[in-house]
Design brief:
- The protein has a domain of 167 residues: Citrate Synthase, domain 1.
- The chain contains 12 helices and 3 strands; from the N terminus they run βββαααααααααααα.
- Helix content is 54%, strand content 3%.
- Helix 5 runs antiparallel to helix 10, helix 6 packs parallel to helix 7 and helix 7 crosses helix 8.
- It has a 3-stranded antiparallel β-sheet with strand order 1-2-3.
- The chain is globular.
- Strand 2 and strand 3 form a beta hairpin.
- With 259 residues, the protein is mostly helical.
- Pfam families: Citrate_synt (PF00285).
- Keywords: Transferase.
- Belongs to the citrate synthase family.
- One of its GO terms (molecular function) is acyltransferase activity, acyl groups converted into alkyl on transfer.
Length: 259
């Protein structure tokens, strides 16, 4: 639920700021799937289920090598997530609630692995396999940034920030990518194909691609001393430079995710 004029975002009735400060991402996943936060026992069972699905099929990993070395990671994500439907035939029937739930579990578990491998491929570095002794956010950071030539120490602060980042982006009502997933699903397409379509929509510069534009802008600004110059450029109506990452079409008053 969103009330843009009041700056309210609720997930299944829970305020996003409360979830970001008190919950873990997998608890929020459970909430979105089942309608309420898990008990301690249900939380551990859910973690175990997700952990069982973190690895990718080895044949699927070979798919990465078919992409150009400079392929955009989102292009790889669209291809590999869509390809899941070619490997997991036991969870492609959208009309079967058990298959739908298994597909959800696989997507939650495998997308961090797929994303980390897409990043590694773009760098020409070896893939790093998941470790189920790590938390969800820890595992993603480990797969993304560790290398086999040296030990990798994960900062607890960065882990917490990443987990919170996942929570803040877990759901945002009827946005472009969600609408795309629902539209694809209305045709009876399997869940993996639908999510791949949603990722393609997320790639667009008016949606998730705006996050990429922010990173590019920060790289362009470079040093702190350059900030005043770029603020002046943003204020100049004749300058094509745009200040990315500020403002929102829905939240006219306050973005509750800025917590």
């Amino acid at each position: 639920y969103i009330d843009g004029s009041k700056g309210i975002l609720l997930h299944r009735g829970y305020d996003i700021q409360e979830l970001a400060s008190k919950s873990e991402f997998l608890e929020v996943c459970y909430l979105l799937l089942h309608g309420d936060l898990p008990s301690s026992e249900d939380k551990q069972k859910f973690i175990n289920v997700i952990s069982n699905h973190t690895m990718l099929h080895e044949q699927l990993i070979h798919l990465y090598r078919g992409f150009r070395r400079d392929a955009h990671p989102m292009a790889i994500m669209v291809g590999v997530v869509g390809a899941l439907s070619a490997f997991y035939h036991d969870s492609t029937d959208f009309s079967d609630i058990n298959q739908r739930m298994t597909a959800c579990h696989r997507l939650i578990a495998k997308i961090p692995t797929i994303g980390a491998m897409a990043y590694k491929y773009s760098l020409g570095q070896p893939f790093v396999y998941p470790r189920n002794d790590l938390s969800y956010a820890e595992n993603f950071l480990y797969m993304t940034f560790s290398v086999p030539t040296k030990d990798f120490t994960i900062s607890p602060k960065i882990v917490k920030a990443m987990d919170r980042f996942f929570i803040l982006h877990a759901d945002h009502e009827q946005n472009a990518s969600t609408s795309t997933v629902r539209l694809a699903g209305s045709s009876g397409a399997n869940p993996f194909a639908c999510i791949a379509a949603g990722i393609a929509s997320l790639w667009g510069p008016a949606h998730g691609g705006a996050n990429e534009a922010v990173i590019k802008m920060l790289d362009e600004i470079g040093e702190i001393d350059n900030i005043p110059k770029f603020i002046n450029k943003a204020k100049d109506k004749n300058d094509p430079f745009r200040l990315m990452g500020f403002g929102h079409r829905v939240y006219k008053n306050y973005d509750p995710r800025a917590t």
